[in-house]
Each structure stands twice: as structure tokens, then as C-alpha cells.
Amino acid sequence: MRWVWIGLVLLVAACTATPPPPAPTTTSSTVLAPVSAGDWPTFHLNNERTGAQPDLAPPGPLSLAWHAKLDGAVYGQPLVVGDRILAATENNTVYDLDRATGNVRWQTRLGTPQPQKGLPCGDIDPLGVTSTMAYDRFTNRLFAVAETAGGSHTLIGMDLDTGTVEVQTMVDPPKGDAIAHQQRAALSIVDNRVYIAYGGLFGDCGNYRGTVLSVRTDGTDPHSYVVPTRREAGIWAPGGAALDGTRLLYAVGNGDATGGQYDDSDSVVALTTDNLSRVDIFTPETWADDNAHDLDLGSSNPVSLGAHVLVTGKRGISYVLDRNDLSHASSQLATCPSLGSPAVQDNIVVIPCQAGPKAMSFDNSGQLTPLWSSSAPAAGSPAIGGGAVWVVDVGGGVLYALDLRTGAVRGQLQIGPAPHFASPTLSVDHAYVGTMDGVVSVAGA
Questions:
Q1: Most buried of 54, 65, 178, 411 (most Cβ within 10 A)?
Q2: 353-385: pLDDT as tens digits
Q3: pLDDT digits 0-9 by tens, 222-236
């Protein structure tokens, strides 16, 4: 499938006229003020995906500050930029909410979402914006990928202050069938480029292949990496990439290898940020069995542990890899099948598990030591702040605050059903969570 570049403007419900021409792209050498202490501009706070907010107040009694009911489910993690809460729905609408009240300040419609009945399989209806957006300070743009009717995927760059569409580029994967790909992995923005990863739909149907695309923040100069397998090998973990210097680390799902021939699936790949060349890879010794039984690494994104990298997939083994040579596993520990994104603070890493999160400590050599397993039935992706682990029971609709050192429940609050993999955003003294009908703000964080 060839690249197609769109030059038309999507219909925008932001009370704006036809958008002005794109603003000049600002280079990464521009001097900007540091990110505000309360900001959360990308999934899990930073491109390293640590998910730890060092400035969060210690938890107190939790209460519902506001509940903004929007036009669809919010699968991506809400972002915080200044006094704005930014969220996107599966109905393809992006919202700027007032941080204090939850009132809508602007909203931008990104086109008609793809109905489930038109998909070869899947479990989200309709399918619009699924991944976590990313904010770029250099251009003051908010970026999202929207799936629209017909199964096309478009990168949209919106002015943060008005919601006006300034960049619009079709970013369908270059191989396979576009409609068989789902864009769940969080976006990354590094050195004026946006990185977009693709997996498949729930059910692993159709002709899709794990893919990473990148374009400049003005929508030009596309590059791509496609896992060299016949099909599948999706890159779908909700955290997307973990930045490691000048490399992006992605976890890859099981592929469709024949005759036991290795095809780079079920792995952790390191891609260069300039042209997405693969420069390193980790493959577990259990690769063939993982592929045969859907026990791959692609269900949880990698995260840095200082000189090491941790990844945990569906098999339930946490691997600690040498950052300078991913093929070398410094240690491994049987933990739990993990779907979602881990969080790290100091020498503690917390991973999502179906029965509730688990915490481990790690030392300079990369050795893991179990700390606790929570009794809270929360399978969402954890975040850390204020000496607590914040995690959502997505089915039961409960937000928990767990003691970082012991896992004991320090607070809990009913917030309503949340999408699978929901992860709290932490800022100052509040937590913000995407739900099946909008966003909730929780005071006491």
C-alpha cells in the first residue's frame, strides 16, 4: 500500500472557520521553558514511560471533583498542559476541558469513526481515537491519530489554544490492509517527529503487520519499520515506545512464522529515531512456544531501569535486559501475565497484572526482588505519585491508591466503568481517568 498525503481539511466542530496554513515548524534547538511541574504531556508523563509524577501531593481522602461526560469512551490517557485537560474519544472528538471545572473550552471533530460492523473483527464500537495523544511544545500542537469510516488512519495536529487543525496527514501502514490495523499504542514525539505504532484488531483477523511510522510534526518526510513476518506481530501495548537515548524500544507480538523460521516477532526491538532502522533486538528462548500459544511480549511496553530495560509479556516472565546489548538478559523473574504499562520510581517497578499490580525492587546489576502483590482487583496500568500507586479496576470502575512500599490500600473511589488498560494521569493533587463516557477528576491525589 502506498503513502497517500491528504491536502483537504477535516470537518471541524470547534466553532472555527477554515484553518489557516500550518505555522512554521520550530526546531528542537529553540529554547523553551521547562515542562510545568503539573503537566502530563504524553503517555505516562514522559517519553521514557516511567509513569511517576514526582510532584504529586501525598494522597488524602479521595472524592469526585468533576465528571465530564463526552461523546464517547476515552481509551487514551488524558493529558495535562497548564490548566487544560486534553482527551479524545472513540467518536473522533478531541476535547479541551477546564482543569478546575471539567467544562468544555473547545472541541474538534476529526471525522466519522469506523463502525465495528464494517471491521473484520474487533471489540471497540465505534473505532475512532484509541491511542494516547501527545503534545509538542515546540509547535504548540496536540497530535492524535483518528480512524475514520473506511478504515483509514489520519494524523491530526491541532493548535493547543483553539483546537484548529493545522496538520493533517494520512498515516495508513504501508503493508497489509489498513482496515485490519488498530492504532492503540501511545504516540511519541521526539526531535520534531511523531511516532505511530500499529497492531491488529481484537481477534487477530485480517492482513496486518506490526508497523512503526514516523513523520515530521509538519506531516512530511515519512519513514516506516515493518516487522519482517508474513502477518501479525502487532505493536499494540498502550504505552507504545520507551525512549532510550536516540532509540525507541517497542515490544512486538506473536507473528505468523512457518517452519519455525524466526521472523523478529515476540521481541523487543530498538529502532533509531532518525529513520527507524532496527539496531538491536531481544528474543526470549521460549520464542517458538510463545508464538504458538499467544504468549508474546507485545502486551506490555518496555521501560528503563537505569542501565537496564524491563519487559513483561503474556508468558508472565519479567526480563531485565542490558541496555547496551538487548540480546543479553541480566535476570528474569516469574511474575504474572502482564497487559498494559509498568511504572517506575527510584528502585521500584510496578507491573499490571490481571489479579492486581505487583511491585519489585531492582539493584544496579538488574536483579529483581519481589516486594508485594496487591489484593486490590485492579488490572489497569499503574501510575506512581505521592508515595502511592494509582491503579484502576476497569470492570468494577474503582480507582485505588496503594502504598508504594507495601501495596496496602490507602484510598479508593468509585469512578464508573473504564476502558481496558486505563491508566490515571496525576497532577498536583488530582488524578484524571478516562472512562467509558468521558473523564473524571479525583481530588485527594
A1: 178
A2: 999 999 999 999 999 999 999 999 999 999 999
A3: 999 999 999 999 999
Question: Is there a domain that residue 282 lies in?
Answer: yes
In a domain, 89, yes or no: yes
Give the mean pLDDT of 272-292.
95
Rg (CA), the chain: 20
Q: How many domains does the chain have?
A: 1
In 107-167, alpha helices (H): none
pLDDT at 1: 37
The parent domain of residue 406 ranges over: 54-443
pTM of the model: 0.92
The CATH number that applies at residue 259 is 2.130.10.10
Query: Residue 220 — φ and ψ, nearest 5°?
Result: -105, 175
Does residue 332 sit within a domain?
Answer: yes
> For the stretch 399-422, what's the b/e string if a residue is b when 16 or more beta carbons lie within 10 angstroms of its beta carbon?
bbbbbbeebeebbbbebbebbbbb
Q: Mean pLDDT over residues 402-421, rounded? A: 97
What pLDDT sits at residue 36?
Answer: 80
More confident residue, 277 or 2: 277
